Amino acid sequence: MGIDVGLSTFAYLSTGEQIENPRFFRAEEAALARAQRKLSQAAKGSKKREQRRKVVARVHERIKRHRKDFIEQETCKLIKRFDFLAVEALTVRNMIKNPQLSKSIADAAWSAFTQTLLAKAEEAERTVVRVNPAYTSQTCSACGHRQPMPLSVRIYECPICGLVIHRDHNGSTNILAEGLKAVGRHSRVIPEASGL
Predict the structure, then answer these.
(1) How many C-beta atoms surround the C-beta of residue 8 within 10 A?
(2) What is the pTM of this model?
(3) CA-closest candidate to residue 150, choices 138, 161, 139, 134
(4) Looking at 83, 168, 178, 192, which residue is catalytic?
(5) Residues of the chain with pLDDT under 50
(6) For residue 117, how many C-alpha atoms fall within 13 Å in the half-sphere facing its CB?
(7) For residue 85, what are the β-bridge partners?
(8) From its phi and psi, is residue 160 left (phi > 0), alpha (psi between -120 and 50) or beta?
(9) Which residue in 4, 20, 69, 72 is the catalytic one?
(10) Which of 13, 64, 172, 183 could connect to 2 by a Cys-Cys bridge, CB 3.0–4.6 Å?
């Protein structure tokens, strides 16, 4: 199965399924802002400031715990279902430099997802292949035609073969094809895994 991670949905699978993006930081943003505002109002060195610092730390810890639980659950489901998984080899630290998307990218925690998936796959003796993410959303998964695709365009329409598909589904299909090519299995169908 190919996995295309994103921001509108956490991941789009080559099976056509989607994993919704829970946006844990965004959900707690107002509570965090309130706690930080109260912290800044407390006098430095006071007991009240120390108490408010702990409140801020608790909000951060809650976000971290929710995100970790979500990643653990989703990776477990994927590992139980599939013998072969292909994911993008994203350089997240470079992507975070984009000021408009940095908060959302950090909230999605793609690196943590990939690392957890790799660790669980090794335990369960599943294969995970990381592929180059270049042009996966811009290349037609049916005929290989490449065309520019701005992020605002969500549907891929191929002018050559007429394929109309969601851009992330197209991307995940291409990721799977690249992963299969990388291990020399591009001509074989990989069945779903039997439960552990």
Answers:
(1) 12
(2) 0.81
(3) 138
(4) 168
(5) 187-196
(6) 30
(7) 128
(8) alpha
(9) 4
(10) 172
Q: Write the pLDDT tens digit of every residue in 28-53.
A: 888 889 999 999 998 988 999 999 99
Active site (annotated) includes residue 168: yes
For residue 1, what are its two tokens? Answer: 């199965």
Catalytic residue among 61, 88, 123, 157: 88
Structure-block tokens of residue 65: 């715990």
Does 107 participate in catalysis according to the annotation? no
> 10 Å Cβ neighbour count for 128?
20
One-letter amino acid for residue 19 of the chain = I
**Cα dihedral value 100, 104, 110, 112, nearest 10:** 120
Instruction: Yes or no: say if 140 and 149 are a contact pair by the CB < 8 Å rule.
Output: no
How far apart are the C-alpha atoms of 116 and 10, rounded to whole Å?
15
**Nearest of 89, 173, 96 to residue 129 by alpha carbon:** 89
Q: Taking the CA atoms of the chain, what radius of gyration do you get in angstroms? A: 20
Q: Does residue 4 contact residue 171 with C-beta atoms inside 8 Å?
A: yes
Which pLDDT score, from 0 to 100, does residue 186 have?
A: 57
